[in-house]
Amino acid sequence: MKHLFKILTLFVVAFFVASCEKDEDQAVLQNPSASNLKADKTNLVLIKDNEAQTAITFDWKSPDYGVAVAQKNQLQIAVKGTNFASPKNVDLADGTVKVSYTVAEFNNMMLDAGLAPGLATNIEVRLSSKLGSYDAIKSNILTISATPYMTAYPSFYIVGDASAVGWDAATSQLLYKKDNLSTIYTYLENGKTFRFLGQQDWGPTNYSLDATGMNAGNKYFKTWSANLAASTPENIQFNGATGMYKVVIDADATVKSITVSASSVNNWNPANVYLVGTVNGWNAGTAIPMTSLGNGKFEYTVALPAASEFKFLGQQSWGDLDWGNITADGNTGYLGPKGSNGNIKFDGTGGNYKISVNVKMGTYKIQPL
Predict the structure, then answer these.
(1) 364 within some domain
(2) Model pTM?
(3) In whole angstroms, what is the distance from residue 144 CA to residue 30 CA?
(4) Residues 92-134: pLDDT tens digits?
(5) Which domain holds residue 77?
(6) CATH number for the domain that contains residue 315
(7) Are residue 140 and residue 55 in the same domain, yes or no?
């Protein structure tokens, strides 16, 4: 019994000693010294021809917690007057106290922060230092005037098991780009994931949602439709019903949004597809049957004279299943459904051409034989 009492006494003493030590650590960690940030420039006019040159250098003194601890540091950049409501966060390597950015790198940061190209805008920059569950310590705020330049709008290739192409980067599907908007009518599957590539390869560029937990190199879209969610660390989950959707990306530097909305035609694998146009006098009743290859793919070989125009129908009438060139008359190679299309216009030379259409992927081709 005496031994048991001694053991209990030792346990209670050890508990109080450990508690005191924790309290002492917390007392030190809860009173860090101030953090200080400096920059070697206060006015920057960024010029594309100087992309490889150093634009700006930041150096800082991280908060001192009284003990050697690893801190998570970020630069936070925001338009002046927004009170850092939605900052551009730039992660800093552990242990560093100085960083330089090239003109190209800092220009991208400015565009991501919402600055309009060609316009001088005052930004605010601060250092955020975070230790575990403790509230982040913020440094002094620097004010810098920055004028970014316009970069070319990027191209976007969709890839993923939520898409019609799967996870093969080599067959990832390019969206139709016009100015800042990239668009496609394509198939998406519920509960699965996808993302966008900047090329038909896994590197160097990937695009996903600018959300917590996402890889820094994948963060791009600032806003997105409600049927999308972050699938960290690199993908986008589609939560809508399986079907055909209109995907629109606005790559304007101040927008960077993705919107996915239901297509007006939700049939990605019609039983039949017919060709109607100048080749048959635009008579829907005698529209020409195309050969089905399965999974929404059809093809037909025909002689196309000069100034040919045509569309695709899912029935031999002017019914609901109707596809043409995306948005308006033209020959882009991208399908638009009824209510959002025009005639496919092709200046044939009198030879034979194979016309292929992939309803599921929202594309078509006209190939000479």
Answers:
(1) yes
(2) 0.71
(3) 31
(4) 988 888 999 999 999 988 988 888 888 899 999 999 988 766 6
(5) 36-147
(6) 2.60.40.3620
(7) yes
